[in-house]
Amino acid sequence: MDQLTHLQRLEADSIQIFREAAAESERPVLLYSVGKDSSVLLHLAMKAFYPAIPPFPLLHVDTTWKFRAMYEFRDKLVAELGVDLLVYQNPECLARGINPFDHGSALHTRMWKTEGLKQALDRNRFDLAFGGARRDEEASRAKERVFSIRTAEHRWDPRQQRPELWHLYNARKRPGESVRVFPLSNWTELDIWQYIHREQIPIVELYLAAERPVVRRDGTLIMVDDERMRLDSDEIPRLRSVRFRTLGCYPLTGAVESQARTLPGIIQEMLLATGSERQGRVIDHDAAGSMERKKQEGYF
Amino acid sequence: MAHATGALAATDIDAYLRGHEDKSLLRFITCGSVDDGKSTLIGRLLYDAKLVFSDHLAALERDSRTVGTQGGDLDFALLVDGLSAEREQGITIDVAYRFFSTERRKFIVADTPGHEQYTRNMVTGASTADLAVILLDARKGMLAQTRRHSFLVSLLGIDHVVLAVNKLDLLGYSAEVFAAIEAEYRAFAAGIGLRHVTCVPVSALRGDNITRRSPNTPWYDGPSLIEHLEAVEVADEAHNRPFRLPVQWVNRPNPDFRGFAGQITSGSVRPGDRVRIVPSGRESTVARIVTADGDLGASVAGQSVTVTLADELDISRGDVIAAACDPPAVADRFDTDLVWMGEEPLRPGTPYLLKIGTRTVGARIATPGHLIDVNTGEHVPADTLALNEIGSCAIELDAPIPFDTYRDNRDTGGFILIDRITNTTVAAGLLRAARRGAANIRWQAASVSKQTRAGQKGQRPAVVWFTGLSGAGKSTVANLVEKRLHEKGFHTYLLDGDNIRHGLNADLGFTDRDRAENIRRVAHVAALMADAGLIVLASFISPFRADRELARNLLGEQEFIEVHLDLPLAVAEARDHKGLYAKARRGELPNFTGIDSPYERPESPELRLNASGALDAETLADAVVERLGAAGVLRPPAAM
Ligand SMILES: Nc1nc2c(ncn2[C@@H]2O[C@H](COP(=O)(O)OP(=O)(O)O)[C@@H](O)[C@H]2O)c(=O)[nH]1
What is the arithmetic mean of pLDDT over A42-69? Predict the structure, then answer.
């Protein structure tokens, strides 16, 4: 019992971050994206405030283009846990029918997610938002703070970030400013999977391999999740055994061919894998440094 | 990403998972001067741990050919050198965290590039590290930087140090060179109190003694770097120290449950243990240790838990639940070491906020006793501390706090200082000892003036003068403004017409002469209070322009802010909360402003607000606070 394991240490530190952030803010919210990192985030939040439920709602900034399985999973889980969920869909996107086919992935993502997030935070006057980003995801995140101050316009000013020492987080801010808090900062992808396995945390079934209808487009396997998918005349959906490493809008999320139908199977494939996690995410290919730019614009 | 895979993962994943869920975690920091090979070393660790994916590796091979320094061979430094690009973009580079794991342990590496901000960055990275790897170039031997890194490591209380003597390949793997450096370093390290030192001869570039022991150094019989990092026992002494649980959060889901949540910073606890609440001094017994996974029979340092007690005690965030037999001391004056991290230097005597554990209190810092030269460890006289300087300072807090010295407990003896106006973290501090009495604290030496008085309060003095008809809402708005300023930590005073007329000006009536005298006295009182360093809110009808000008002249343009609450007489009269207009109309109140005595509108007040009811008092108060901000009143005073 003397030495905590790495998962115990990560868990305890994340819980400490949740409690600290909740204690030092007035209107916190948890950004819930339905993916595996969100699942872990929510699980840790439940633990941090047990036996109470977390003293903040979940916010799903929706695009209407997520996989159907994600919506089902979300609604079922929220009902089971008894937590509050706010779903926000940018009304301008709804009105103008913004979609990845006509408007391209960059505009689609900026309008639904970046703008949607800002609107949702402003309208609800949330002053602190928990997010599931990890430092190992990308070089530009390696130096990201656990508590990250955003201006009233939600911009990330790299020059204004505060040093973080010991377990002491400084969440003080001026009126209008807000804080993004990343309790999973020190987790790696492998930690996330091992923890999901150890804790039996529910995740969307799309992470496990199954026969799914897909088409190959620009070298990426895209699942035909509903009738809104626009197919070229020569594109015929075929059933293949695939799974997803990250989840987002289905027309923008690449699948990988896999036979891993269990959690240990996924972990095994990942351990033996040779490509890094985000290859399956179309949005990252746009340009180098794109994540940095998105962050400055307020997309996480 | 970033994990070494054994054959086990391929053949028996379940066995692999069982083993790997129980790894321990080691956090370390790497320190080295530019070109000692730090990036190469970290790149090599990541590469050898097989945590470089094919896409990254392809990029590495490509970049090694184009921008590498190794003539087309793999340049491992490129794996971690994303940061140089950022420097060019002017982005603050401080600490980057990198992750890898081996069959036995998971590692978090704090990498602190940059030399200008070196002290700040290194201290930040070191604050969470269990161990430090100090790198030096064998050709250069021990340099001033090596001493500086070691000194900071020892200051931050990191007990375990690895000296990696790098680039030995360039010296023919000379045993003599290594032995000489090792001897010199050990002598130095002992002198500054580093207890566990391991020296490893390496070539980061060629991979000697990084993961495996190298055939090139047959004379060396110690572990490779990774072997040492995997095996070193840092299971820190926090476990053997007395129990401490700083309360983060009081959990009250229903009237029957009252739990105190926090992360145990030292020791261990079991149900039935006697505990004392500090600072209140009340005692009770631990009833349960509640977690979402069921109650625990015991828990130890590092765990986040929720405890319930046998007795109903009033406990809140910031209190510490501690072993009753060995509780922390409580004090409000300390000797500390400060590492200054703010762009603006320390302002002695000015209030800052100090956050320690889960408690935040106001703090004043005395002029430093001395500054510590990080290259030599020597003490140098100093008046203040600038960015990256380290000094010993006495601190006085607004309220007593429970504490352990930093030496005893990094988590309850380390603190940060926060600037009250900008909210930035300006210093890291280490509690060294409590002080008895304040006799020898050296505050600001200069003679006491308006500026120093205000500086001590962390503010600029000002008089905000609210004028307007009776019923305009002056007192309501002034009250709200005072409340807002007070919440932000400003020192204020509200002078209100009604109050003053009951005391100081009880002898005055409402004739023109008496009105003028009323305002003259009030203006002087306000000026005296501003001289004391306060932000004064004066709320008076003050109908005559000349009287308000007198106040303005007493204070000067800088410090006088006139706020006109503007509304038509008809609206004020219709409002008539106090029934004064009605009385005046009936002739029972002679010389009533607006009825039979004039109100001279301010011509160019600093702020004119529409008080006719279109905006609520909160909005009006917001506007005033915003105007004060624009006028610079809410900025910190200039450095002294
Ligand atoms: N020969 C040799 N060169 C090395 C070794 N380690 C690093 N270097 C070289 O020293 C230079 C500086 O290395 P780098 O890792 O960028 O240094 P940093 O500034 O400390 O990160 C590069 O040209 C490296 O290839 C080593 O062990 N042997």
Answer: 96
- Identify which of B324, B313, B227 has the alpha carbon closest to the alpha carbon of residue B272: B324
Contact status, residue A166 vs residue B127, Cβ threshold 8 Å: yes
Alpha carbon distance B171, B178 (integer Å): 10
pLDDT at residue B53 above 70? Answer: no
The residue-averaged pLDDT of B488-496 equals 90
Which residue is closest in CA terms to ligand 1's atom 13? B37
Report DSSP state, residue A66: B
Classify B281 in phi/psi space as left (phi over 0), alpha (psi -120 to 50) or beta: left
Residue nearest to atom 6 of ligand 1 (CA): B37
Taking the centre of ligand 1 as the mean of its atom positions, its distance from the CA of residue B137, in whole angstroms, is 9
How close A94 gets to chain B, by Cα (Å)? 33
| Distance from the Cα of residue B582 to its chain's centroid | 56
Percent of chain B with pLDDT over 90: 46
Q: Which residue has the higher pLDDT, B20 or B37?
A: B37
Contact yes or no for A168 and B414 at CB 8 A: yes
Residue of B612, B374, B604 lying closest to B471 (CA atoms): B612
Q: In angstroms, what CA-CA distances link B35 with B44, B135, B137?
A: 15, 10, 8
Atom of ligand 1 nearest to the CA of B40: 15
Q: In which element (H, E) is residue B539 found?
A: strand B535-539
Active-site amino acid positions of B: 542
Helix (H) or strand (E) holding B412: helix B410-413
Where are the extended beta strands (E) located within A108-218?
A: 128-130, 147-150, 178-181, 210-217
B405 CB neighbour count, 10 Å cutoff: 18
**CA-based nearest residue to A190, from B7, B50, B42, B11:** B50
Query: Which tokens is A20 given?
Result: 């600290």
The alpha carbon of residue A27 is apart from the nearest alpha carbon of chain B, in Å, by 16
Q: What is the pLDDT of residues B426-449, one digit of tens each?
A: 999 999 998 875 434 444 444 677
Tell which residue, B15, B8, B18, B23, has the closest CA to residue B230: B23
What strands lie across the sheet with B96-101, from one edge to the other? B96-101, B105-111, B24-31, B131-137, B160-166, B196-201
3 state SS of A268: helix
pTM for the whole thing? 0.76
User: What is the tens place of the pLDDT at every residue in B371-396?
Assistant: 888 777 788 888 899 988 999 999 99
Q: How far is CA B43 from the centre of its chain?
A: 32
Contact criterion met (CB < 8 Å) for B1 and A46: no
Q: Which residues pair with B494 in a beta bridge?
A: B537
DSSP per-residue letters across B225-271: HHHHHHH-----GGGGSPPEEE--EEE-SSTT--EEEEE--BSEE-T
Distance from CA of B565 to the nearest CA of A (A): 24
**SS3 labels along B461-479:** CEEEEEECCCCCCHHHHHH
Q: Do A163 and B428 touch (CB under 8 A)?
A: yes
Query: Which position has the token pair 């983060």?
Result: B248
> Tens digit of pLDDT for each residue in A177-210?
999 999 999 999 889 999 999 999 999 999 999 9
Q: Which residues surround ligand 1 with Cβ inside 6 Å? A: B 32, 34-40, 69-70, 77, 166-167, 169-170, 203-205
Average of per-residue pLDDT across A133-157: 83
Check: CB of residue B457 under 8 Å from CB of residue B491: yes
Say how many residues make up chain A. Answer: 300
pLDDT single digits (tens) B118-164: 788 889 899 999 999 999 999 999 988 888 889 999 999 998 999 99
CA dist., res. B83 & res. A38, Å (int)? 29
CB contact set of B215 (below 8 Å; sequence gap of 6+): none
Strand pairing category for B492-496 and B359-365: unpaired
